[in-house]
Amino acid sequence: MTGGLARDLLIGAVPPVAIADWRYLAAAAAAGLCLFAVTGTQKALAHGLDPAMAAILGMITCIGGGVARDLLTLGSVALGYWLGLPSLPVAAFGAALCLFLRLTAIFRGWRLPVAGGLYQSHHKTDDNSSP
């Protein structure tokens, strides 16, 4: 994509096709999100997580990368934008869903799994020990 931009600018084909045609930008954004997902999954695997949890953490990394991109570029939420939905209702629904899931997790006692062997209690007691 960068080579095409340079070529178009050097020959005077303005605006460059990669900017004028939204499909190029969408493909570049999708490729960037894929890189976020892959690097997040690889890092989770390197830290000993099982493949299913590593894939979920890769997905979370990907989502976080997309949100960071949207915030840094002052863009709207991508899904709402592509579906033609107004930003405020989409953001309100997302916030309500997040609140619902968090409160449900608190009231039901849901906990995320911990990576194997990394968590050890610092408050172990030994019945045979004396102060």
In short:
By secondary structure, the protein is mainly alpha-helical. The protein has helices at about 1-10, 15-20, 20-45, 50-70, 80-85, 85-110. The protein has two domains: about 1-75, no CATH class; about 85-110.
Question: What does it look like?
Answer:
This protein is mainly alpha-helical and 131 residues long. The protein has 2 domains: 74 residues, no CATH class; 28 residues. 68% of the residues lie in helices and 0% in strands. It contains 6 helices and no strands. Helix 3 packs across helix 4. It is flat, with a radius of gyration of 23 Å. It starts with a helix and ends in a 23-residue tail after the last helix. 8% of the residues are buried.
Q: Kindly report how far apart the N and C termini lie.
A: 69 Å
Structural domain tally: 2
C-alpha-based Rg, rounded:
23 Å
- Uncertain residue ranges: none
- Order of H and E elements: HHHHHH
Number of helices: 6
Number of strands: 0
Summing up helix and strand content along with how strands pair, one would put the structural category as: mainly alpha
- Please report which band the strand proportion falls in: under 5%, 5-15%, 15-25%, 25-35%, 35-45% or over 45%: under 5%
Coarse shape: flat
**Residue share in helices?**
55-70%
Average per-residue pLDDT, rounded, comes to 75
**Main beta-sheet strand count, sense and barrel state:** none
